Amino acid sequence: MHTDEIAALFVPAAARAHLYLWTPSGHLLEGDASRVARAWGFVPMQLLTWVKPKIGMGYYFRSSTEHVLLFCVRGELPARRHDIPTHFSSSRALPHSQKPDALLVIAERMSPGPRLEMFARRRRDGWDVWGDQAPAAAQLIAFR
Fold first, then answer.
1. CA-to-CA distance for 126 and 77, rounded, in angstroms?
2. Distance between CA 17 and CA 25 in Å, rounded?
3. What mean pLDDT comes out for the span 119-123?
């Protein structure tokens, strides 16, 4: 999807919510990721970095990281913890575009539920999923 289409999506989040938004480096540098978060009603607060054990593709540099705007906040919803670092390591041996469980664990520790993974490619206990590649049984939940 084009960035404008993503920014125009309705995100069924509560008035007080956290958002963990994945972004390629180019979208971070151009400000597109922050623009999407703001269009969805969130304020970007912190960058979180996924450190991968092997290098990948790249033009100037070979990529060994991926980024999440951690965390974006809508309303006043404090974090549940204050001891989690801004980076995590996890294997990159996942299907294309599938993100590591390590971030979902961080989200579960930091942010109260309910939880929704948009553009999901699998199910996870305690999470609702949404997207055209989400498992067939997925349903969009109504947030409080």
1. 19
2. 24
3. 82
